[in-house]
Write a structure and sequence with these properties.
By secondary structure, the protein is α/β, with parallel strands linked by helices. Helix 2 runs antiparallel to helix 4, helix 4 runs antiparallel to helix 7 and helix 7 crosses helix 8. The radius of gyration is 18 Å and the shape is globular. The chain starts with 7 loop residues before the first strand and ends in a 9-residue tail after the last strand.
């Protein structure tokens, strides 16, 4: 039985006020369950006022060469709620992923995804093992078992994307550089447990960066296909985490979806009564019941 005695480093990459607010909430939920054993780490760009987040994060790592947060926020369509809170237009977020052109928001998004990989690299300079969480997550249970999966030779652990729903499979399979077989697993990179393994980690992160910039020339803004390519190229040993470690609250848009279709699925730690559940992902996850980490832009949880 694994008992992780070192600090449990939970790492976030966030820029801009909205992303920082989400990361702060997630960090508080992680510390709620882990107490003093959890060290929350924020990696951010050089434009943020770090002193605004002293209590949520034990360590703040500024990537001083980055100035992308303000640039990215300037390209986003925002709305204000009745109490004046700034929120992101959900349709704009969905349209951003479908539009693979070279508009300024997409260029900023590409910079953000590349910076996420660098954030993981920087955190691994300080810790032997880390648990990277996207900002739009919320922790419902203890996290130490995730790091226990990283016993050698395992370098990285993740919840896989459902087989048959991977991204960029045909492109990766036909690529002369990457030649990724169709059966290769794709990680949901919103939750990654990574060990600082001198044999694989640096090569994995470098290949991830190279694959990401390579695939963006074909219009892929997501970093998951690139991670899939890097994992195959480096043959880094990996383990699969159980689904509750990344309860992804996201419904796919289709050509039949109405224009105002919301892709974010409401989730909360205790789940929702069956009468409130909608078809699809919401029902599959029981509204979040039994999840260790919620992952959605619509988390229905009170702050810890």
């Amino acid at each position: 039985m694994c008992v992780w005695s070192a600090p449990l480093a939970v790492v976030y990459f966030a820029v801009g006020p909205i992303s920082l607010r989400k990361a702060s909430r997630s960090a508080r939920s992680a510390r709620h369950f882990g107490g003093k054993s959890v060290e929350t780490v924020l990696v951010t760009d050089g434009t943020q006022k770090i002193q605004s987040f002293p209590s949520e994060f034990n360590v703040v790592i500024p990537l001083s060469e980055l100035r992308i947060g303000t640039e990215f926020m300037a390209t986003r369509q925002v709305m204000r709620s009745s109490n004046g809170e700034i929120i992101i237009d959900a349709s704009d977020t969905a349209n951003r992923w479908r539009d693979r052109g070279k508009r300024s928001s997409n260029l900023a998004l590409r910079s953000l995804r590349a910076a996420k990989i660098e954030a993981i690299r920087q955190a691994l300079l300080r810790y032997e093992r880390i648990l990277f969480l996207d900002a739009d997550t919320f922790v419902c249970q203890h996290l130490d078992k995730a790091l226990c999966t990283l016993e050698p030779p395992v370098t990285v652990a993740f919840v896989p994307v459902q087989q048959g729903r991977e991204h960029g499979t045909a492109l990766l399979a036909s690529s002369k550089r990457w030649r990724v077989p169709r059966e290769a697993r794709e990680a949901n990179t919103g939750v990654l447990a990574i060990r600082n393994d001198t044999n694989y980690t640096n090569r994995l992160l470098q290949a991830w960066t190279e694959a990401y910039f390579d695939l963006t020339t074909s219009g892929f803004l997501m970093d998951q296909p690139a991670f899939r390519a890097a994992l195959h190229k480096t043959q880094a040993p990996f383990a699969l985490l159980p689904t509750p470690y990344n309860c992804r609250g996201h419904e796919r848009r289709t050509k039949h979806s109405p224009p105002n279709h919301r892709t974010a699925v409401p989730l909360r730690c205790q789940g929702w009564p069956s009468a409130y559940l909608n078809p699809g992902v919401h029902t599959q996850l029981e509204g979040g019941r039994g999840c260790i980490i919620l992952h959605s832009h619509d988390i229905q949880e009170q702050d810890r």
